[in-house]
Amino acid sequence: MSDLLDKSIKNTKRKRVLLDGFPKTLNQAENLETILSGRGKKLYAVICLDVLEDKLKERMGTKGMTNKETATKALDEFYKNMGPVITHFETKKLLRKVDGNQDIDTVWELVDKEVSDAMDKYKLCKKKRLQQEMNSEGDGREEALPKVVDEPINEGDQKDC
Q1: How far apart (Å, rounded) are the C-alpha atoms in residues 155 and 21?
Q2: What is the pTM of this model?
């Protein structure tokens, strides 16, 4: 899986990618970060749909997984794998939880907002890097190069870049 992901990221002409349903294990999460880092990229957000177990079982039933035992086994495996992934991204302050118990239109709006917020963070971090590059070049004189960032970057945003 990691080789396929690395090849896809390498061959894309896009600057940003959105992965749906990945990573599913801690090993995949760590490999993803290694791959992105090797390509000069990084994660800006991981969105987790937070859904009650009963709701998940109900939704699994609508997808043909009507056997309660099968659904319980699948959820147990999911929780076993995803717990460490969620903790990993929470620790890195990348995890954004969305209440997935609501109707699909509301969930979509919330996910869309989280993706938009992540894109804003990406743009802000890109401006910060450009500003740092511009201000670090030169011959050491007191005058600063023109600022690239047209809005101030607060300290909280800087540490997350």
Answers
A1: 32
A2: 0.71
